[in-house]
From TrEMBL:
Catalyzes the reduction of the glycolytic intermediate dihydroxyacetone phosphate (DHAP) to sn-glycerol 3-phosphate (G3P), the key precursor for phospholipid synthesis. It comes from the Bacteria. Belongs to the NAD-dependent glycerol-3-phosphate dehydrogenase family. It catalyses: sn-glycerol 3-phosphate + NAD(+) = dihydroxyacetone phosphate + NADH + H(+); sn-glycerol 3-phosphate + NADP(+) = dihydroxyacetone phosphate + NADPH + H(+). Its main location: cytoplasm. The keyword Cytoplasm applies. It is found in: Cytoplasm. It comes from Sphingomonas hominis. Residues 5-155 form the Glycerol-3-phosphate dehydrogenase NAD-dependent N-terminal domain. Pathway: Membrane lipid metabolism; glycerophospholipid metabolism. Its EC number is 1.1.1.94. This is Glycerol-3-phosphate dehydrogenase [NAD(P)+]. The gene is gpsA.
Amino acid sequence: MSAPIGVVGGGAWGTALAQVAAGAGHAVRLWAREADVVAGINDIRENAAFLPGIELSRAIEATQDWSALADARAILIVTPAQHMRAVLGHLRDHTAPLILCSKGIEAGTLLPLHEVARQAVPGAPIAVLSGPTFAHEVAAGLPTAVTLAAEDADLAADLAALVAQPTFRPYASTDVIGAEIGGAVKNVLAIACGVVDGAGLGQNARAALIARGFAEMTRFGLARGARAETLAGLSGLGDLVLTSSSTSSRNFSLGRGIGAGTPAAALLENRRTVAEGAHTAPVLREAAAQASVDMPITEAVCALLEGAPVTATIDRLLSRPLRTEA
Ligand SMILES: NC(=O)c1ccc[n+]([C@@H]2O[C@H](COP(=O)([O-])OP(=O)(O)OC[C@H]3O[C@@H](n4cnc5c(N)ncnc54)[C@H](O)[C@@H]3O)[C@@H](O)[C@H]2O)c1
Ligand SMILES: O=P(O)(O)OC[C@H](O)CO
């Protein structure tokens, strides 16, 4: 039997990716933080806390023991972005490739996650997997495609082949920063689209916001070294289209609640699942200021998360001076 695939993170996405890896024929070791998640996966083949209703493969063994990942041939990292550095501290001496599947930018350092991983696990090759992927659809075997990026083109192709299934098609890329920026920024834009929906501003407004949001993602991405074609691909525009129009998105739903008049603080209090856009927005605003990139939609989302009134925030966005589209 070949070496197992490791997965770190027993939330919805880590569990769905464990199911994908098992479906691709691998033994899978899934490290989860919660004892109830580990017990549920091993005993009744279900992650009732984060991915209820999906029968999980017997090839998945859940654990809270870091040493169970020692012989993994590759490890998928799927914790919330702001916890990634702390979690990777447990893997410091690993040399197997790490595939980062989380979406965000580290607060404080403003580093993209692949640079966090490079610092935290210096001996491991780093790759990024990102794209339009609602966990429950992927776990149910519905089809999608993702970007799998590594600086080394051969590594990207090898890792893509390792996790591919007919219903899970990774497209290899060498644009690591591009794959990361699309996923991080779309979560913030999804909150904005949810606000438009919750406030009843109509479908034209949402389409305009998606287009101007994509312009914002592109400006920021290009300033940080991303390639335009990656931003227009699966991990950028593809994921933006998905998340900005569906209540299956935690970020869109958060925005919808804000738009309908519930304070952001109340919506964020005591949640067990993560809406990454709420954590990414202030970090993105700071990173954009540092790069001298204008991101008015991101600024509006930050204001709403900080408690600004919905109508006044939308009015401010709509009354910006007219400009050219390019
Ligand atoms: N759910 C999806 O459909 C999906 C798809 C693609 C990418 N992602 C990304 O994957 C990442 C994980 O999201 P998810 O949906 O699996 O999470 P989730 O909302 O289902 O679960 C929350 C996760 O956070 C973990 N957590 C909470 N506090 C923690 C701490 N202090 N240290 C370490 N871990 C902690 C929990 O153990 C749990 O795994 C996010 O960056 C998300 O944007 C999610
Ligand atoms: O539920 P969301 O908003 O975190 O979105 C999940 C994934 O990122 C979609 O690709």
